[in-house]
Protein: Pyruvate carboxyltransferase
Amino acid sequence: MWPKKVFIREVGPRDGLQNEGTFVETDDKVEWINLLSTSGITAIEVSSFVHPKWIPALRDAADVFRRIRRVPGVTYSALVPNVRGLERGLEAGIDEAVLFVSASESHNLNNVNKSIRESLMEAEQVVNRCAAAGISVRAYVSTVFGCPFEGSVSVSQTMYIVQRFVDMGIQDISLADTIGVANPGQVEHVLEEVEKITAIDRIALHFHDTRGLGLANVAVSLKAGVTRFESSLGGLGGCPYAPGALGNICTEDLLYMLHGIGINTGVDMDVMIRAARMIQDKLGKSLPSCTLQVLSNLQRIS
Amino acid sequence: MWPKKVFIREVGPRDGLQNEGTFVETDDKVEWINLLSTSGITAIEVSSFVHPKWIPALRDAADVFRRIRRVPGVTYSALVPNVRGLERGLEAGIDEAVLFVSASESHNLNNVNKSIRESLMEAEQVVNRCAAAGISVRAYVSTVFGCPFEGSVSVSQTMYIVQRFVDMGIQDISLADTIGVANPGQVEHVLEEVEKITAIDRIALHFHDTRGLGLANVAVSLKAGVTRFESSLGGLGGCPYAPGALGNICTEDLLYMLHGIGINTGVDMDVMIRAARMIQDKLGKSLPSCTLQVLSNLQRIS
Structure:
């Protein structure tokens, strides 16, 4: 059984662009986000309120939030590493805060210079502040399927963090394959464990296509009842060291699969293709989107 | 439930190379096939005995067969379009003949200038000649999931051809997504229909990764009990009009997925990576293999 309806969260402006070597001008980001706001998508991860020193590509987060045209029904969220980042986000008018804790101790330390325990305490403060500010909050568990430092990550460590997020009342928890090593067997296993502690409709999945298994992992997740996924237009987010290397799963390829299966997403493929081409042009390089490649081949042949 | 054991048929030397603009020298083909013969793989589609005018890249089929080192336990097969091709193949010492009929009338006409009816009669002759020669035969149904001329292809048309192949006594029937448009929902549906007329262990699947769904389609096929797949080292077989466009599903990426799930293939990943690099070097261009890209990124970073 396939789900009837799936929700896609476009994370290209945040997760996609943060790894790009090229700085996309604020005007261009705003134009791009405005276009994809008209696609029918209901959630866009717009930027990140981390210190600009760490992610210079997203140093204009506040400007972007102030200048985008908000479409009713679309949630515009931003990543916040801590309460200080959240305050900057609130000032800029974010609809939703996104926090993150890694399932791997060494990745968490390396990423935010805190232990998992400290990050969970910070997360609690973010949740409380969001409640006071009246905005929603969601949370990533990073490196669920593998860590660049430790290699394999125990499922129980992920479950511990999911349980803590559940206890904090976070309704929307995303399990992220930060380095793109997950396989469908592992995904199934993790989802079986997650279902023991929370309802599957509270869970989103966030895959990277580093090993070409992103959509295979989505397929088994759909079968397990997951209906929320994060993806990037064009498959943005490849490693800056490798031209052509794959980043997030590609939104338009994901749409091709979901619509092909007969699953409703509410998203207009044509608008998304225009938006994917727009960011490809702005970056001035070929993105790893099969859909864009197929369309460009068809143009050459005809 | 995942299957415990999966059989991979390496089709790079045939389906991969036939679309390459560059002619790979016979010596190089032989060296490459000899290397991949040592990987533990049990089936290699070595070449094609079609008229050299149609596929110049494989014009050395007979030479390749005569010069490769045969490893016991490996089946060395070749595509044959008709009895004349089969005779050339038998002379060159093929272990197995591979015939093909398209599920789409216009694709069949365009491909071999015959109606499906005529192709099925030819297939019967090939089957009889193989029986007389004492070699095995297998069969592709092409364009099962879509046709470049007709668009969608009816499942009943595929089932008709599968039934005819079953009636001819062909034990090994491969359903091919010739143009790479299949999605997991469609694959499931076709497999449900196939199971009504024959055992699933008689069926192999042959996906192209044009839309990035190749491994997603494999994942749902595994769940449906399919244990035989065709793939190409490096993801060879992209459209000559599009550098970087994707061809067959990539053997080493498929192995990464299967081994990650815990499925036994009997194939040594390290040997396959060496073989993928070898053909990449001989072609002198980057192949769409995620595994090769990841390895080359790791080298750059370290």
The mean pLDDT of chain B is 94.
